[in-house]
Amino acid sequence: MRQRTLRTVALLGAAAVALAGCGGGTGASGDGAYDPAAVFRYAVPGMPTSFDPRQSAPLDPVFLDVVYESLVGRSPAGELKPGLATEWSFSEDHTSLTLTLREGVTFHNGEPFNAAAVVASLNAFKAKGAQAASLKTVAKVEALDEHSVRIDFSQPSGYMLNILAGEAGIVVEPKALEDPDLPTKPVGTGAFELSDLRQGKITFKKFDEYWDAEKTTISGIEMTVFADEPTRLRSVVSGEMDGSTISAGQIEEAEANGLSLVKGPNSTINGILLNTKASEFGDPLVRKALLYAIDREAISESLFDGGCTPTVQPFSEGFWPHVPELDDAGKYHDVAKAKEFLAEAGLPNGFSFELVNGPNTTYQDLSQILQAQLKEVGIDAKVRTLEFSQMIQDRRTGNFAAAVSLLQVGRPDPSQFVADFYLPGGGYNAGDFSLDGVPELLAESRADSDEKERQGPTRQIIKNVFEAGPPVIPVCGVQWVAAFRPGVTGFEVPKFGDYHFASIKISR
């Protein structure tokens, strides 16, 4: 393998103004027009699972990114940049990574950020919890001096830069790591610190000692929970909230009410997660029957107004693991073929199973549509709605047969989706689905840091799993959409789920 060394230097000054209109970000005017005392009020669908990264869930970054920072930064568009580390370099064989740490950084409790804190967090995360799988190849973390760290890997791990840009790269103040209250009392280095946490509302205040505090032009953030999508949108229209994510099907209503939109592709998909140890899903023929039973184009048009791109693969067009040969999702809707697969599986009269979803309106509606489409091929899906926390718990523990879910496939790195969903023992592979050759291809994909080198083996994994009947049945690639009241600017599409609230600006 030829050498691929990445080295990045610190960025100077504040970020430039975001793109205007309804593209990548909300527009902005001159700095003098912003209200530094303003509090940004953001409507969210649910409470955080935990502020301890070891216990967090895939959709928790919207909360974690407010109070924590990762070693490697990542822009909303997905470009890696300095974070708590200002420079980094791999060894020639990608088995060692050296990081130069940012100086002058302080934790929310006043303690200094240094190499010892990095070692403590990485060791704690790789020992147990939600980040352990991402850090599986980390063999040793060593402080070289107060502001530099070396990470040694058990095998070539060029992919680790993306991992360290996610939750696994978060640095928690060392004493807080041992505090049983960490799930509700985070101690990070972020632009904001948690000031109040109660059911239905999370409040943050600006951290005045933040190393780049000058770029933050709001005094705090209030996140209020509205589980129902129509209610979230109404809260912004009424002025109760300043902004919220909305579904693509709500765009016309939002625009009609004078709201500004931020929208663009996101590395999430809507799909069905199957437990291959439940119902009939251990049979590849049954999984293929589900794959062909779904009319994705009808779902996109009827439920999302065309704003969710039909797909039979995890990665949408524009993301480097995307497989061009699987582009035409329409040809994979074939009721007759789905029935043939069921007959070949010995189920000519179909079968029944329970299909669960969370409290979000979109996923309840999607479940009902899928129920009707599956019925056309003889499959009886009995739909049940779970509370948000119960849905997360059941997905983790395997206490389900099939779940309609929003799946983050690109964060922190596409290979982690493969490890979590396609490898035995994966965090979301409840049925221990396995396929010969995938571990070897995954190791090849993870060895290098260059996406061009990684693309071939990653695409081969996607193709092989598709042919074997995937344990995750994709429906459509999500277009991320958020609506904001007039005067709120600076927000950009979090392509890989990285939220930058410090860039929010509110007019006087």
**CATH fold-level name of the largest domain:** Dipeptide-binding Protein, domain 3
How far do the termini sit from each other? 55 Å
Q: Would you report the number of β strands?
A: 19
Percent strand equals 15-25%
The CATH superfamily of the largest domain bears the name: Dipeptide-binding Protein, Domain 3
Structural class: alpha+beta
Largest sheet: 11 strands, mixed
**Principal-axes shape call:** globular
What oligomeric assembly is this protein in? Answer: single chain
Please, could you describe this protein's structure?
This protein has two domains: 175 residues, Dipeptide-binding Protein, Domain 1 (Dipeptide-binding Protein, domain 1, Alpha-Beta Complex); 213 residues, Dipeptide-binding Protein, Domain 3 (Dipeptide-binding Protein, domain 3), CATH 3.10.105. By secondary structure, the protein is an alpha+beta fold. Helix content is 26%, strand content 23%. The N terminus is likely disordered. The longest helix is centred in the C-terminal third of the chain and has 17 residues. Strands 1, 8, 9, 10, 11, 12, 13, 14, 15, 16 and 17 form an eleven-stranded mixed sheet that branches. It has a four-stranded antiparallel sheet with strand order 4-5-7-6, with helices on one face. Strands 2-3 form a two-stranded antiparallel sheet. It starts with 38 loop residues before the first strand and ends with a strand. A hairpin with a 5-residue loop joins strand 2 and strand 3. InterPro entries: Peptide/Ni-bd, SBP_5, SBP_5_dom. It holds the Pfam family SBP_bac_5. Keywords: Signal.
